[in-house]
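User: Please predict the structure of the protein below. I'd like the answer in structure-token form so I can feed it into my own downstream comparison script.

Assistant: Understood. Taking the following sequence of 459 residues as input:
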Amino acid sequence: MKNRNLCTWTLCLLSLAALPSCEKDFLELKPDKTLVVPSTLEDLQALLDHGAVMNRGTSHALAAFGSDDYYVSTATWQLLPRPEEKNGYIWAREVYEGQPVNDWDYAYRRILYANTVLEGLTKLTPAPAQQEAWNQAKGMALFHRGWAFFQLAQLFAKPYDAATAAQDPGIPLRLSADVGAVPTRQSVAETYRQILEDLQTAEALLPDHPIVPQRPGKAAARQVLARTYLQLGEYPQALTATENALQLSSALLDYNTLDTNAAFPFPTQGVGNPEIVFYSNQYALEILYPGRVQVDSLLYQSYDTLDLRRQAFFYYEGDKLTFKGSYEGAYNLSTALTTGELYLTKAECLARLGQPDEALHTLNQLLERRYRAGSFEPLTTVNTPDVLGRILEERRKELLFRGLRWQDLRRLNKEPRFAKTLVRHIDGKRYELPPNDPRYVWPIPDNVVQASGLPQNPR
């Protein structure tokens, strides 16, 4: 922060951001009028550049706990201290045991920051020389709000179903910085309408190429739009958004340039990684510490021996196969938007829209940079009769531990061909999560329900 006043109002916002986790009487507290609030364009931009809030802990923890990217031993599970990790791993009916939930709190904190910026911008009349910076700040705020709404929808609202979306409960859509406003749950249809509106407006305002990957540009907005359209099943729109993103950001990392035997083969915090469209990471999760996580041996064996991801993503610790392939280049997991995902989304959309040759050409562009140099045999409709199935298999292998598997399971479970029952084995017991089970929607945090009266998700 640039000065003492910035520190003051940032601390104020941090305190207010915790309110969703507080008791009802705290919701009635009003900010101290003597506290300094952001009042200049520089102040507002500094708020958006607060990386510890806007780029970290990006609401994927519950998705990670519940997905099939990994498993843990009974001994590891029994030692987990946080209820949401322990109960989330087995998709328990009771998850949080009254504890706050970071996925909820952190997302609404980012939304509070975004709304504070948006309201602050309306009070400024930028000089001509500041108009572009004003536009970019508004675009960044709308991007962060839209992406946070999207992430919350993947955890706390039902998967989109056109037949029921207007009635299905979605998430509270906080559109102002008034922390005293009583939250209500809008429908799933309204939730996705707001996500699209925020991201489409952001896209028009953001720069083609942001000065640092911690700031979103047009490609980032288009990529989250593509994710949204995938959830809606609107493949032509997802294809357009993806192709538009690739026009601005299409570089791929050649895995032949990596030391795949290194403890962390990828650049630290994504610095120098040409695939990072927008930088973000997940806060540390005890259940996913290296050495605790075990990867399914069948998933590992699905990688060809000439596929460099096999060495770059995994290693053995004794007889335990575990994961080291975070694009964070460290223990924390990356949740960054990447061009690799864009190629896979484009390929999937092309396949679903009846263009198998173009789909495989797009997939080949990615895989050529994943296989040992000179060893990759391009895929064609002759040697790959199941084009869509192969693309989704490669999506599974490329994007594991990125916070994406949960939302993919939710959408693919609607198709019987790709639906999957997840299974855990703990302490001699078998736990299952069937396709389209109500537990694909996580409960709203207990303390939020108690303080606000929001209707809880059934389990």
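That's the full token string. The chain has two domains: 1-178+421-459, 233-416.
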